[in-house]
Write a structure and sequence with these properties.
6-stranded mixed β-barrel; 12% helix; alpha+beta; 263 residues; two-stranded antiparallel ribbon; 12 strands; elongated
Length: 263
């Protein structure tokens, strides 16, 4: 019976000391995101040893966190907004880039991961200048991008009428610059599949296809099969090369990685 009373008294003393202890020690108000030697105090560590302990994110790796690090310094994730709409092309009538952004709504704290990228860029081309005049189409070079870009193109006009579905031109890749594989950005990954000797399919669709001419810039319709034609990738002006026309078809039937569109 005596031992039980002593044990109860001991718990009461520890509880009382603990309350006073938490006021002056521990990680309360001392949490830091990265390894920061200023986030230090003297208290019990998680391994129950009393001494110098830390309240920064790095203490979980060095195992010198204060005993209350987990409860006082919980990670608060970064929260970002939805992506904005894509901007217009930076420059009209030539290969350029468009941008979309998102904003930080809640910054990360303590052990949370940093915020993700807040900006994305993609290649584009617009067919009207700042005065809304048509840019016109000349013979070279063909400006191309991934077939994925075409999925966002309108299929109907403003009155709901279906647009001309266009056509496809098959080419044999003759050459490309080494820059097509050097950049490692999301909007340039498709360029890695532009390889010499392979057959590629390139779709000509509105708005790249002219209403009257029913052609796309650089599609080679008026060129001989032996003519060496030039192409350039949107989003990386240093990625360009040559190809030879095989023939024109109604639909593209190349594998996805070898399917592109005129823009």
């Amino acid at each position: 019976m005596g031992s039980s009373v002593q044990f109860a008294c001991l718990l009461l003393v520890m509880s009382t000391l603990g309350k006073d202890h938490l006021v002056s020690g521990g990680c309360s108000g001392k949490c830091c995101q990265s390894r920061d030697l200023s986030c230090v105090t003297t208290d019990y560590r998680m391994d129950r040893v009393h001494g110098t302990c830390y309240c920064d994110k790095g203490c979980t790796r060095t195992r010198d966190c204060c005993f209350d690090y987990v409860t006082e310094c919980p990670g608060q994730d970064c929260v970002v907004s939805d992506w904005s709409f894509w901007s217009g092309c930076a420059k009209p009538c030539q290969p350029s880039v468009r941008v979309r952004v998102r904003h930080i709504q809640q910054r990360p704290s303590n052990s949370a991961d940093p915020c993700p990228s807040l900006e994305q860029r993609a290649g584009c081309k617009e067919y009207r200048d700042h005065q809304s005049n048509n840019c016109g189409r000349n013979s070279a070079p063909a400006i191309i991008t991934s077939m994925e870009f075409g999925k966002g193109r309108p299929k109907h006009d403003s009155y709901g009428n279906p647009l001309d579905p266009g056509f496809c031109v098959e080419f044999t890749l003759e050459s490309r610059t080494s820059h097509c594989t050097l950049q490692n950005r999301p909007h340039t990954h498709w360029m890695r599949y532009i390889t010499e000797g392979f057959k590629v399919c390139v779709a000509c669709e509105p708005p790249a296809m002219g209403n009257n001419s029913r052609s796309c810039q650089g599609d080679g319709q008026e060129s001989d099969k032996d003519a060496l034609l030039h192409w350039q990738a949107v989003g990386n002006p240093q990625c360009h090369g040559t190809w030879k026309k095989i023939h024109k078809t109604q639909r593209c039937h190349c594998p996805p990685q070898h399917s592109f569109i005129f823009i």
